[in-house]
Amino acid sequence: MDESPPARSFSLDRWVRDDVAYILPMGAFLAVTAIAQQWPAFLPVGYVLKTILAAVLLILLRRHFTKISWDYWQLGILVGIVGVVQWVGMEKLLLHVWPNYPALSHEIFNPFEKISPRPWLMVFLAFRLAGPALVVPFMEELFWRDFLWRTFLAPNDFKLAGVGEWDAKVFWGIAILFAAEHVQWMTAIVWAIMIGYLLVRTRSLGACIVAHGVTNLLLGVYVLCSHDWWFW
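Below the sequence we write its predicted structure tokens.
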């Protein structure tokens, strides 16, 4: 009897190259962000959507990513705490001393004024805290300080370069590119230098993820407590 081979279910993991796997979550996240910037009314839904989309892609494509070392995670917590103090403090200083600070063009979004009914507001706030604290650190550290860092070191095959391998041009280049993604770019470049140094010193991507998550979580808590929506 002729037996056909069992049908194989579709798996995104099998159809994506390693380099594309790093780009997809970040690309999807930025694409939805760009749409929300064009249609502000879409912003709350867009934030929830891009957080879920990035998280799903990170899970589906996880086999393509570098195995994460969690060495020095305690140091990551400390750096994350220093990072939120640096971020808030530096932005406050820039706003005070620079009347035409370029980031002033950033539109302030107060969810308590823009979102109703209250259950939907609570959903948005939950995603606004959880997304930056849990999803964004994995997405951005895998992209910036794993894939792109190593791609600059070994353009033909990024896997030939080690995690956190030192190169001055790469160190500064990644910091500048990371900052360019953020409205508060001057503050972001200082933060990126700090995280880049953590990576080089520890060779631990996990420590960077923890630091990123702690900074974002504490920044979110600060915003909710102070209602200083400038930082969101």
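Residues 85 and 103 are 19 Å apart (CA to CA).
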